[in-house]
Design brief:
Number of domains: 3
Shape: globular
Oligomer: single chain
Largest sheet: 7 strands, parallel
Helix content: 25-40%
């Protein structure tokens, strides 16, 4: 088993794959102090002001003289990031791989040719005031009909605190997100539950919803009826009567749209789980499928790498807008664009935002970037896509699902039980986390640090995705976590 890794020949730091002790000789240097797993140590003397390199790229600069073998972290280095930048279009020629062997999956076929990997009934409040009523409708429905309903993968109340005292873009975004949820192909039937006096009024919601299948979406305003619980149960029963006849059919894996996300990263994220997910993304796009990566602030410092993979000038320009719009959002609130990584990231060995970003973008693989999606956009281009949105776990997974993703691959080094309203596959960067939190983690990528080949790990991950797409529940589904959050930028009345 390897004790450490030097990711690129030009790097000035190595990374501990296991806890290392003072006076050990590792990568040709003698350590001057203990180094925790995931943390960095200097491969040579690094002078004050000199760039520190990892992944073959600068991750910041030294703020003190760093001797070979010393721990390199927040105490002796800092970020290079500042404001918005001008970028050059330097298209990288990417050789398309031979098409690999695809797989069959069993999914639900929806009207219009879309597919879903779940057939669930959802109660979606237009406003947080009726969250308890949404939960009670689901509870009464299950009490009456039981939990294991033939033809249905589950019945859930998808609650949230939004929909009133919002104006402008926030109100528009709330309405848009809820509408996209109601029409998501994993949803076999949606009951839209309103209060009656909220900003997110039902008549406007229905009109803006556009074309939809009336057998799959029902509407109820609580103030308009005497007993909203019994009325809601009746509407759920009507939805169930239409959805229960849906059957899984065989399709090619290429019909999938899969989101890519990381949260609670550690020093192994960019070495094990994220590169593995990048290889999966390359595999899925090579067979004709679609992947989508978001978390724009966690591209800062690595954005030029992504820009070089734009399929054309138009996509390059979109990536520039994606990056600089988010930087300007930070600056408009008086916040430095380098206000990251989180305390958990730092404890795990990530020092600067560049360090985090260069590890984060490993999830993108090496294929060309087909398109860039902004607020409210849905996936239209097969291949690898970028999506606007923050790094926040709940918001990012919500945005990915609303862009059309059927599931999300979520890498984590610190662990989280969170799951979105689409299956959220937790991939641990280290095996200790997988052992400790077996109820949270679906896949252990930490085996790569212990010597497993990427080829073998990729095959395991493909098999897991096939299984989940065909109905096997994820850890978050088993634990009942089906949460979402909406990005808020405006005022609250």
């Amino acid at each position: 088993m390897k004790k450490s890794i030097v990711i690129s020949p030009s790097d000035t730091v190595g990374v501990a794959l296991v806890p290392l002790k003072k006076d050990e000789n590792v990568e040709g240097v003698t350590l001057s102090e203990d180094i925790e797993r995931g943390h960095k140590f200097a491969l040579r003397d690094i002078h004050i002001g000199e760039n520190v390199k990892k992944y073959g790229e600068p991750i910041g600069h030294a703020t003190a003289e760093i001797k070979a073998g010393a721990h390199v972290h927040t105490h002796n280095m800092t970020t290079n990031l500042s404001g918005t930048l001008e970028y050059e279009y330097r298209k990288k020629e990417i050789e398309k791989p031979a098409k690999p062997r695809s797989r069959d999956i069993f999914v639900y076929e929806r009207k219009g040719g879309e597919i879903g990997i779940r057939n669930e009934l959802w109660v979606i409040p237009t406003v947080g005031c009726v969250n308890a009523q949404a939960k009670n409708i689901v509870s009464e429905f299950i009490k009456k009909h039981g939990n294991n309903l033939p033809g249905i993968d589950g019945v859930f109340a998808l609650t949230h605190p939004y929909g009133c005292s919002q104006v402008g873009d926030d109100l528009v975004r709330t309405r848009m997100i809820l509408q996209k949820m109601a029409k998501h192909p994993n949803c076999g039937g949606a009951l839209i539950l309103g209060l009656g006096c909220e900003n997110n009024r039902m008549n406007i919601f229905r009109k803006a919803l556009g074309e939809h299948n009336p057998e799959r979406i029902e509407f109820l305003v609580a103030q308009d009826v005497e007993d909203e619980i019994s009325e809601g149960v009746k509407l759920l029963e009507r939805l169930y009567d239409n959805a229960k006849y849906d059957k899984r059919v065989k399709k090619d894996l290429s019909c999938l749209k899969i989101g890519l996300k990381c949260g609670g990263s550690d020093g192994l994220s960019g070495i094990t789980a994220n590169p593995l997910v990048g290889q999966f993304s390359d595999y899925l796009t090579a067979v004709g499928g679609t992947t989508v990566m978001t978390e724009v602030p966690e591209m800062f410092g690595a954005e030029q790498i992504l820009m070089n993979r734009a399929k054309n000038r138009d996509v390059f320009d979109k990536i520039v807008k994606l990056i600089n719009d988010f930087k300007e959002y930070y600056l408009s609130h008086g916040q430095p664009i380098s206000e990251n990584p989180s305390p958990g990231n730092i404890a795990g060995g990530i020092t600067t935002l560049e360090d985090k970003s260069l590890g984060c973008v490993q999830k993108s693989g090496s294929s060309e970037i087909s398109d860039v999606l902004f607020d409210g956009d849905a996936v239209t281009e097969r291949g690898f896509n970028l999506l606007s949105g923050p790094g926040n776990d709940m918001v990012a997974v919500t945005n990915l699902a609303c862009a059309g993703c059927h599931m999300v691959l979520f890498t984590t080094g610190r662990g989280t039980p969170f799951g979105g309203y689409v299956p959220t596959v937790k991939i641990s960067t280290n095996s200790e986390l997988a052992r400790k939190k077996g109820g949270w983690i679906d896949f252990d990528a930490g085996r790569i640090a212990d010597g497993e080949s990427f080829e073998n790990a990729l095959e395991r991950l493909i098999e897991l995705v096939v299984s989940i797409a065909s109905g096997t529940p994820t850890a978050n589904e088993r634990s009942g976590s089906h949460d979402f959050a909406i990005f808020k930028t405006g005022v609250t009345l």
